[in-house]
Write a structure and sequence with these properties.
Helix content is 21%, strand content 27%. The chain is an alpha/beta fold.
Length: 226
């Protein structure tokens, strides 16, 4: 699996030759100026919830790439009105097999409205299972006991967790979340993009380290292998 960071909560994950793109928010992100949104590959675009910092570039990337969009029902209706075809609407609890592996939609404790104020349904996280490995993409969420279900019934190799605090969990709660999901290999997201969520990187990494866990904070534009 190749993982590329596009800033904020936006990651590309290449699994079995397919490009999954999570929560595209690139062109409005000052920190991601070095990324050309017109070259970001996508066979699938997964959207955790409707907030602009997770959906801003979904329409343009979906139209350019013809990627299949995976999101909740309310967001799918909104995107269809913008002329996007081939959307797979899902909702929490649902699991669907695709050619790269499967997607299970799980609970995220957050809110969700679309950029124009439309109702965005409920926010979600995703558990991806494939022959190349399994991971959890939490979306925007507080720490919630529902995460224990992932630890009890799924086998997660690594996880993308929000750590910016203020709108989501911060590092301390993300450490507890990683206990709940029984996974010690965490990639941080949803930090530094706005003034409200600027964090001390060294301190966050040290806290994870002291708990026997690894926190990776990727450089925007970098790709790592898992
Ligand atoms: Ni949000
Ligand atoms: Mn957000």
């Amino acid at each position: 699996m190749n993982i590329t960071y596009y800033g904020h909560s936006c990651f590309g994950v290449e699994i079995n030759g397919k490009h999954l793109l999570f929560d595209p928010f690139i062109s409005p992100n000052e920190l991601a100026r070095g990324i050309d949104v017109n070259t970001v590959p996508a066979d699938y675009i997964l959207i955790s919830h409707g907030h602009n910092d997770h959906i801003a570039d979904a329409e343009s990337i979906a139209k350019r790439t013809n990627a299949k969009v995976i999101c909740n029902w309310e967001i799918s209706v909104w995107l269809e009105k913008k002329g996007i075809e081939g959307i797979r609407p899902m909702n929490t609890g649902g699991k669907v097999k695709f050619d790269f592996g499967s997607v299970k939609c799980v609970v995220a404790q957050h809110s969700s409205s679309l950029p124009d104020g439309s109702y965005g349904g409920n926010p979600m996280g995703f558990v991806i299972e494939s022959t190349e490995g399994n991971f959890y993409y939490a979306g925007d969420t507080a720490l919630t006991y529902d995460m224990k279900l992932i630890g009890d019934y799924r086998n997660v190799d690594f996880a993308f967790l929000p750590i910016g605090d203020n709108f989501t969990m911060g590092p301390d709660n993300a450490i507890i979340a990683s206990d709940f999901i029984k996974c010690n290999d965490i990639i941080g997201m949803h930090y530094d993009t706005f003034g409200f969520i600027i964090i001390d990187h060294e301190e966050a990494i040290r806290k994870f380290d002291r708990s026997g866990k690894k926190l990776t904070l990727m450089e925007i534009g970098d790709t790592i292998k898992k």
